[in-house]
């Protein structure tokens, strides 16, 4: 079964690449192709070419087909047979998908352009000029290696640094993994991830369209990883991150914590000893924090309001940790001040005697005369 799904995965990947190539070079989008007013088409294409690009139009076009294929695989090979195909988790993550898309259009696009501008102005010396004459696919392969290692390292830090984990916990909180869970991310976590995504691609001299093309592949590969699919990719598991491998990473079980950090390639986990090697395990997922606002209802009000509560969850956690830390520091400072006062009070006679013993004879006599303790001559 795993081998058959691996074959489907390879065919789907190369099929997507071929379809994208056909659309990109054989079927260019032009004004007049849609039954819309010409000014609207012109404005749409202008925005698409300037900020989104043809690749994103391809993504929009392949979106329904990709969702349908993954849902079919979930139906045929479910990792958790008890999970409904249209679960509460899927509905909730669909809302996160919408929020993430809006954030991408309103913020991330400009953030990536800002990163590219800053890189050209201040970090261009990092560009590996020797690969500029390499074929695009070779540069893309190098970029994937650099990106995937940095992504592994960023993911590792997100689990080891507490304040980063609070933001990353939004992604891990889903107990019904589905194809939309890939985009269940806090906006702070997204900004950190995009930084690690864009910079390595710029280092090898990739253009923005090629970066978007890579993002298209990474998007669907991430959706497949998070889907409720029973597959370890067979022999490909030693190279690629599979749904089974990434489910271990999302596991509630303590023995699975801090395992399988890989994004695309699993080689880093094998190399650094963080790969879980039981390939038949499909554990329950989620976070253990009882205070996390989980989705327990598919009602419209809950679905719309819960992402807001989940968005504020990490800020509350950081505030509580910071308040507790400052409280401990304040308490420690108070104890130190009290101990200092006690020490001064207990040692004041001794200090006075020491000071008096160090005073010259005439100074002591003057002091005693001043206080009326010196006998008249």
What's the gist of this structure?
The chain is mostly helical and 377 residues long. Helices cover 67% and strands 0% of the residues.
Tell me what the structure shows.
The chain has helices at 2-26, 38-52, 54-76, 88-123, 136-160, 162-172, 187-203, 208-226, 243-249, 267-272, 300-358, 361-370. By secondary structure, it is mostly helical. Helices cover 67% and strands 0% of the residues. The protein is built from 12 helices and no strands.
Give structural attributes.
12 helices; disordered N terminus; mainly alpha; disordered C terminus; 377 residues
Please write the string of helix (H) and strand (E) elements: HHHHHHHHHHHH
Unreliable stretches, pLDDT < 50, 5 or more residues?
Answer: 1-11, 13-29, 369-377
Helix content: 55-70%
The tally of beta strands, per DSSP, is: 0
Oligomerization category of the chains in this entry? single chain
Distance N to C terminus: 115 Å
| Tertiary shape | globular
Biggest sheet architecture: none
Strand content: under 5%
Assign the structural class, choosing from mainly alpha, mainly beta, alpha/beta, alpha+beta, or little secondary structure. mainly alpha
Question: Measured on Cα atoms, how large is the radius of gyration?
Answer: 31 Å
Mean pLDDT: 78
How many separate helices? 12
Helix-strand blueprint:
Layout: H1 2-26, H2 38-52, H3 54-76, H4 88-123, H5 136-160, H6 162-172, H7 187-203, H8 208-226, H9 243-249, H10 267-272, H11 300-358, H12 361-370
């Amino acid at each position: 079964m795993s081998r058959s799904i691996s074959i489907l995965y390879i065919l789907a990947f190369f099929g997507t690449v071929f379809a994208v190539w056909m659309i990109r070079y054989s079927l260019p989008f032009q004004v007049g192709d849609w039954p819309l007013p010409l000014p609207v088409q012109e404005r749409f294409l202008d925005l698409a070419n300037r900020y989104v690009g043809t690749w994103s139009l391809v993504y929009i076009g392949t979106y329904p087909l990709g969702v349908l294929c993954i849902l079919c695989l979930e139906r045929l090979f479910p990792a958790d047979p008890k999970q409904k195909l249209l679960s509460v988790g899927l509905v909730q993550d669909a809302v996160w998908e919408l929020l993430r898309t809006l954030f991408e259009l309103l913020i991330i696009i400009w953030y990536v352009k800002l990163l590219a501008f800053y890189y050209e102005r201040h970090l261009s010396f990092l560009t590996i000029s020797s690969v500029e004459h390499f074929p695009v696919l070779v540069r893309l392969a190098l970029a994937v290696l650099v990106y995937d290692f940095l992504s592994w390292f960023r993911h590792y830090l997100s689990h080891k640094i507490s304040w980063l984990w609070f933001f990353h916990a939004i992604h891990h909180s889903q107990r019904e993994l589905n194809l939309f869970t890939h985009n269940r991310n806090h906006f702070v976590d997204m900004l950190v991830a995009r930084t690690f995504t864009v910079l390595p691609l710029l280092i090898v001299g990739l253009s923005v369209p090629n970066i978007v093309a890579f993002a298209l592949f990474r998007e669907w590969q991430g959706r497949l990883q998070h889907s409720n699919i029973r597959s370890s990719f067979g022999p490909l598991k030693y190279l690629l991150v599979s749904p089974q491998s990434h489910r271990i990473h999302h596991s509630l079980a303590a023995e699975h914590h801090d395992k399988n950090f890989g994004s695309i390639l699993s080689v880093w986990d094998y190399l650094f000893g963080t790969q879980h090697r039981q390939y038949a395990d499909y554990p329950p997922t989620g976070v253990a924090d009882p205070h996390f606002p989980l989705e327990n209802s598919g009602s419209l009000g809950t679905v719309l309001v819960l992402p807001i509560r989940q968005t504020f969850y990490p800020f509350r956690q950081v505030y509580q940790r910071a308040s507790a830390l400052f409280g401990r520091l304040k308490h420690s400072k108070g104890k130190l001040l009290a101990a200092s006062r006690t020490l001064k009070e207990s040692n004041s006679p001794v200090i006075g005697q020491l000071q008096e013993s160090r005073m010259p004879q005439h100074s002591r006599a003057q002091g005693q005369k001043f206080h009326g303790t010196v006998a008249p001559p």
